[in-house]
Amino acid sequence: MASTADSDFNILHLVVGIIFIWISYRLFVFFRFFRPKSEHSLRSVAVLVLGDIGRSPRMMYHAESFAEHGFMTYVIGYGGSKPIPALEREPKVQLRYLPEPPAIFKSLPFVLLAPLKIIHQVTSILRELLVNIDEPPEYILAQNPPSIPTLALVWLVGRIRGCKVIIDWHNLGYSILELKLPKTHLYVKIAKWFEATFGRTAYAHLFVTEAMRDFLVKEWDLVGEKVVLHDRPPKHFHRCSAQEIHDLFSRLKGPLSSLKDFLPESEAPFSTPMTDRKSSQTPTPTPTTFNANPISTTAQTYERVQPPRLRPDRPALVVSSTSWTPDEDFGVLLQALKQYEKRAGELAEANSEKRLPKMLMVVTGKGPQRDEYMKEINRLQADWRWVRCLSLWLEAKDYPTFLGSADVGVCLHSSSSALDLPMKVVDMFGCGLPVCALNFKCLPELVKDGKNGLIFNNSDELARQLESLLVSFPSSQRLDALRSSLLSATHTSQKSSAAQTQESEWCSWDENWSRSLKPLISTGVQI
C-alpha cells in the first residue's frame, strides 16, 4: 500500500495537472491566430520523455531513427544519465533538458511543494513545446507511461499548433498505480479515465506487443493508425570479441577491485579476470647489452604479447538489468543465488565431473529498492564461496559491450499490465546472450522456451536453469546450443522469403523501424 504522502502527491498531480492544462489551453489558444496550422517545420519531430533521457532507450532509438531519416529532432526530457553517443554527435538532434524545480522548493511543506512541483513541470514542458521550439514540429512523439500529465499536454499542443501526435504505448500508467493501490481505489479509476480520455485519439499509436494493441483497441476504441513496433536492439549490439571484453574489463578494474579475493588473479594490461593476453611460451633468456647496461629478455615484449583470449578459469558472468522497482521481484533471484551457492559447494565436495563454476552476478541499473536488497546480499555473500553479486551502473556506451561479454542474462520483469515486453531481453538477444526470464502472459511473443532462452516461474526453477546452463562451464553444451540458435535468428536477413513468423522477422531496430514506422511519416503533413 502506498504511503499517505505518495497517494496525496498522485491525486494532487492529477487535479493540479488537469486544472493547469485547462487554464493553459485558454491562455495559449491565441497561437491559432498567430501561426496557422499549415505553417509547420516539415520533417521535424519533438520526442517527449517525461523522465531521464539517458534511461529511456526506446525513445533514444526513436530519436536517432528520425534524425537518420532527415528529421530535425528535438528530444525533451530530464538529464541525469548520458544518452547514447549517436544523439550527442547527430547534427539533426537537439537535446533539450527540462529544469529541475528550484532548490527553495525543498524547504516548503508538502501541501505547497507538491502543487508547485507539478506546475513547474507542466510549465517547463509547455514552454519547450509551445515557445522554445519556434516552428511547430510536424510530429510529437510521446512516451506512455507516464500518462499524467504527458498525454494531456501533447493533446493540448497538438490542437494549438496542429502537430500530429504519435503515442508510443510502452505500458499502461494506471496498471503501474495498481501495484500500490487496489484496482477499485478512486485514484486508480481517475488515472484510468485520464489515460483513456487523452490517449484515445492520436495520429498514430505504437505498441510494443500485439496483445497491447488488441487490448487497447477493444477497451478504448483507439482512433488513429495502429502499428505494432516490437522492441529490437540497435545495430551496434553484438556478441563481443575477446579483445572487446579485455578492453571493457580493463576499464572496470575499479568497480571490481573489491572482488580480488573472489576473481582470478590478473595483471594489467596483460590480463583481466575474464581475459589473458600473455604469451603461453616462456621466453628464452638471451643476455643482451647496450652501452654496457644489461637488458633483460625474460620480460614481456610487444612481439611476444598475444591477442586476448578468454580465460578457462574465469567465473561465469551472469547479468540482470533492473530498475529496482516492485514490478521486478529481486527476491526471486536472491533465493536462486542461495541455491546455486549450496549446489556448487555440494558438487565440489563430491568431486563430481560435472562441476559448477564460480558465478559473478552483476545487476545493472538504478532504483528505489537497490540499497535494501544490496544490504541483504552483502550480508549473505560474506559467507559465500561460489557466488558474488555486484550492483553496477554502466554508461550507455559500455552497456551493450557488457551484455555482449556475459554468459547468461536473467530477467525479473513481470509487467504490471501483462501487455508489454522487457526491452532488457531484446538488448540481451541482440548481444547473443541467452536469457532466463520470469514468465508472464505476453512473454512467449519474445522468449521461445528452449530455443533462445528459458522461462521460469519461481526461484527453484531459476536455480535449476542456471545449474543446467553452467554445469561444466566454460564447455556447456546447453548454453552453446541456446547461443547458436539465438545468433542464427539474430542474423536472419530481412529479405528472407521465409514465412513471416516472429523468428524470421528478428532484425535490428533500424530495419524494424524503417519497415513499421517510416511509411507513416514519409508523406509529410496532411491538413
From TrEMBL:
Residues 58-228 form the Glycosyltransferase subfamily 4-like N-terminal domain. Pathway: Protein modification; protein glycosylation. InterPro entries: ALG1-like, Glyco_trans_4-like_N. The chain crosses the membrane at residues 12-34. Its EC number is 2.4.1.142. Keywords: Endoplasmic reticulum, Glycosyltransferase, Membrane, Transferase, Transmembrane, Transmembrane helix. It is an enzyme of class 2 (transferase). Participates in the formation of the lipid-linked precursor oligosaccharide for N-glycosylation. Involved in assembling the dolichol-pyrophosphate-GlcNAc(2)-Man(5) intermediate on the cytoplasmic surface of the ER. This is Chitobiosyldiphosphodolichol beta-mannosyltransferase. It comes from Gymnopus androsaceus JB14. The lineage of its organism: Eukaryota, Fungi, Dikarya, Basidiomycota, Agaricomycotina.
